[in-house]
Amino acid sequence: MTTERIGPPLTGGEREMLRAFLDFHRATLAMKCDGLTDEELRRASMPPSTLSLLGLVRHMAEVERTWFRRVVNGESIPLVHSDTDDYQVAYDATGATRAEAFAAWEAEVEHSRRIEHEAESLDVLAYNARWEEDVSLRLVMLHLIHEYARHNGHADFLREGIDGTVGA
Fold it and tell me: Which residues, at least 6 apart from 81, have a Cβ–Cβ distance to it below 8 Å?
């Protein structure tokens, strides 16, 4: 399995650029997981950390769901991997499979894309109950780019530790 990753455009409007950079980072995470077995994807970094590539994929499903469906779209739904709103549950990839984790993550990405495309503008406001503040769609997209970029750095180290593969 090889993930196609398209580089963001060098010019364009703000919304087009945000979409492109977010999709670039989504593809980067998927690319870091290409060609690995379920066991390799579950392999933790180094003690005491339990961070794994599969845990990152599961976590990003939660991030996508939380920001786009729960915040922007106002849906009252549980997290993907926890009925008790415990964000740490996603990191525990014990027994998880690529098929399960990627199906959940890809479904949330598709919901996110739909919600963003249907939004009137980047200035659409939504209430973030956790912060007790209104946030714009622009902030949500920038926050997700930041979240992916940070975790893709983790994914770089995790992948190198598994099979020596380096680079994005």
Answer: 58, 61, 62, 89, 90, 104
